[in-house]
Specification:
about 90 residues; elongated; 2 domains; 4 helices; mainly alpha; single chain
């Protein structure tokens, strides 16, 4: 029984020049992997890193402290915000 029995497979095609292909083949061979496995593993690692970079917010200590302070002690809503909330409630909460 295959572990990937219920997994639908997809393909992608890459166009690259001979030098690029030779470089990838050499790296794959050095890692003891097939070219496809090497490209897939490296691509997924880079993709996961890019996703993490774009989904992670790093705050300085000062900004973190300010953020937490505002969560614990939120400022009073301004008149403009109160007016906007009232308009929203009048329109959507009937």
């Amino acid at each position: 029984m295959s572990i990937n029995q219920n997994v639908e497979e997809s393909r992608i095609d890459l166009k690259l020049n001979q030098e690029q292909k030779k470089t990838l083949e050499k790296a794959a061979a050095l890692m003891g992997m097939s070219l496809s496995s090497y490209v897939l593993s490296q691509s997924l690692a880079a993709a996961n890193k890019d996703i993490a970079t774009h989904e992670t917010l790093v705050l300085s200590d000062r900004d973190r402290d300010l953020f937490l302070s505002l969560l614990e002690n939120p400022p009073e809503p301004s008149e403009r915000l109160k007016s906007a909330m009232q308009k929203y409630q009048d329109k959507y909460e009937k």
